[in-house]
Amino acid sequence: MISLSPASTIKTAVTCANCNLDNLCIPKGLPRSEVGELGLLVSRNNMCQKGGAIYHAGSPFRGIIALRSGSVKLVSLDSEGNELVVDFILPGELLGFDGLANDRHNCTAIALETVNYCHLPAAKIEILATQTPGLSHVLLQRSCSQFDAQVQKMMLHRRSADARVACFILHISDRLKQRGYAEMEFRLSMSREEIGNYLGIAHETVSRIIHLFQDRDLIEIKSKQLKIKNKKELFDLFATTTPNSPSQGT
Amino acid sequence: MISLSPASTIKTAVTCANCNLDNLCIPKGLPRSEVGELGLLVSRNNMCQKGGAIYHAGSPFRGIIALRSGSVKLVSLDSEGNELVVDFILPGELLGFDGLANDRHNCTAIALETVNYCHLPAAKIEILATQTPGLSHVLLQRSCSQFDAQVQKMMLHRRSADARVACFILHISDRLKQRGYAEMEFRLSMSREEIGNYLGIAHETVSRIIHLFQDRDLIEIKSKQLKIKNKKELFDLFATTTPNSPSQGT
DNA sequence: AACAATTATTGATCCAGCTCAAGTTTTTTA
DNA sequence: TAAAAAACTTGAGCTGGATCAATAATTGTT
Fold it and tell me: Where are the beta strands (DSSP E) in A101-143?
């Protein structure tokens, strides 16, 4: 528990308007004028320990979450209690949309390491929508982006295990880059098991492929620390036509 | 081309307020008072022939579509031009959300038979959102439902081919029922190829499983005409624990 | 620092479903 | 209504990746 620096009493407290994630988080695409208003309603500096849940599947929708630091896995449970890793959320990204459809979460959000997050309460969203019409649109866009991401994931499921792992590495790299982190060297905060679950392959296969990539000098892996050594070839591998014959449709 | 009954000149023209799909389409969950307003902005009675595209991937987002009759497949194309069937849309359901994230469609919507649809123009959505705050929320809910549906689809990808086909049949049945159609006997408007593509299995496998189900007296199939004879057993098949060992997580 | 628990690696075997192939039926077009 | 095209069925063999198994490396705990 961090009990230092009570942000609320400091004059230059972080708000949406001056947050370093302001053009990635909710405000991205939101008119400057509306960011201030948003800032007043967001609850900041919430914490969750590694392994803890930010929200549980089945619990009522409490609002949209913006990750400030740390990463999260979004999991769904089937009838037998098997976990499906739906997505990984990185700092600066939003989560919670799985609760909007029927005011109850379909997924559980679990911290992969200690996370710090902001929280836009559900009750305020609709109220806010009237005053700041841009917000509705931004939220709608974000929620649709989630859909798009899932479509991309489906596309990936037609490719070989190699291609999936290559794509996964490149995708994480890309997202980190966008958020100002190193794109060629980073820590995978999720386990092989979680990666495999997410990609739809066995964790043994993930391990094998990661080491195959290392043998081919495409990456360097030491436990969870990853270094990309040949981005182009990784990309080629991902783009290579491994699946069934290319059927040209009209 | 149907040139009879110019609806606009008939006094009792169909609007959202008196449409027979009113509690399935956009108005579902929308306050009665706002339905009237919506009705004024929707373009009705648009047609698209079998095989035609309602919109193309890459084209600018023009609005949300509500299917009145006929069904549609939503496809995405990978870099090599291979088709991925993302979803099937049935009468009374909405489509177009794949265009909201960045004002350009990510998917192509193709009519599986002649379709009739309503169209809520993009330009009007944001304007309308200010006047009828409920609309934003409804749209947000719908778009998130799409996300949920994709998560369900991902779950399905961990199951055996049999379970996927069983689930597919039950899912279509359920959606048709909700819309007032017969739930135990209906026409599959999509080809085996499209079903297989959607489910991530070869079309030969779809065919084999459908006939296996018929041999077991679970269904009766004649070309595209399907009759469910044993819903319970189909459901059990879908719910049966085929995948990897049940790991109980904390 | 030593122990325990979790997570990762690596090998060997096996099978669900893919691919290829060759008819058959249904649908479309002329 | 017949011919052509498209969609569907059914068989046979092959393989990518799952599963099982046994060790090794991390990570967390006392």
Answer: 108-111, 115-121
The pLDDT, as a whole number, for residue B2 is: 35
The pair of three-digit structure tokens given for residue A238, joined into one six-digit string: 């991902």
> Which domains, from first to last, does chain A contain?
15-138 (2.60.120.10), 156-239 (1.10.10.10)
pLDDT digits (tens, 9 = 90+) for B7-17: 444 445 678 88
What pLDDT, on a 0 to 100 scale, did the predictor assign at position B127? 77
Count of beta carbons in the 10 Å neighbourhood of residue A134: 19
Task: List, for residues B106-124, the tens digit of each pLDDT value.
Answer: 999 999 999 999 999 988 8
Test B141 with A76 for CB contact under 8 angstroms.
no
Q: Is A101's CB within 8 Å of B145's CB?
A: yes
Predicted confidence at residue A147, as pLDDT, reads 86
> Dmax of chain B from CA atoms?
64
Retrieve residue A113's tokens.
């390491």
* Run of H or E including B245: none
Question: Which nucleotides on strand C sit less than 7 A from a protein beta carbon?
Answer: 7-12, 16-21, 25-28
B98 CB contact with strand C at below 7 Å:
no
DSSP label at B61?
P
Cβ separation A137–B150 shorter than 8 A: no
Residues of B in contact with A146 (CB under 8 A): 144, 147
User: How far is the C-alpha of B182 from the C-alpha of A225, rounded, in Å?
Assistant: 56
| Contact (CB, 8 A) for A117 and A96 | no
Of B133, B142, B143, the CB nearest to A129: B133
